[in-house]
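This section describes the prediction task in plain terms. A model, or a person checking by hand, is given the sequence of a single protein chain and must write out its three-dimensional structure as a string of tokens. No templates, partner chains or ligands are provided. The sample shown here is typical of the held-out split.
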Amino acid sequence: MNYIKHLNAVFQKVYSDNRLNTSHISLYMAAFQFWNVSRFSPQFYVNREELCRMSKIGSNRTYQKCMNDLHKWKYLKYTPSHNPFKGSEIKMFIFAPTSAPSSAQTTAQTGSIVMHQAVNRYIKHDKTLKNKPKHAKEVFQFFKSKNFPEQEAAAFLLHYDQSGWLTSNGEEIEYWQAIAKHWMLNSKTADERKKRSTKRSFDDPLKVSNSKNYGEPL
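The expected answer:
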């Protein structure tokens, strides 16, 4: 994907689209930077706080409105995550006309194999850090051994690689396997909580379990 041609096409689209404001544009450019970091993969995961920091948006309400607008106006596809330990998924649409298939289209056709390759290129192979996996396959195999999908492994890798393999308190991770187990536990808890909320039914207070013959005198 030629990102220069893509950005030229985006700016032409922005110029003629009067619905956009500065917050829309800055948020799109922040998402584009994350797309660039992920080697223009068809889907990638983002953190709301990081996107707000990069786009200089200080309000969660503004962020949500602008992201929903960009999704509705076909600038990108946004799939929010209700799990605080799992980033939201974004798919960027390609606007630059190309004669050959784009890299994003090619990646989408090859499926999970190319996703592994994209994550492998993204992970920095620094052997001086013992608190991070030496190879992305190591993480995918670990998640697979715990019966977790590879999408969770990819989200885990991208999240902690963007944070420099530091905890939320800014401390270095000693054992990434322990952090991965904590990630799985929170993801499973969030999914179960979501299922319970969707299956919750209305309990009729007038409904009784026993049968009574109302023809009998009191």
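For orientation: The chain has a mean pLDDT of 77.
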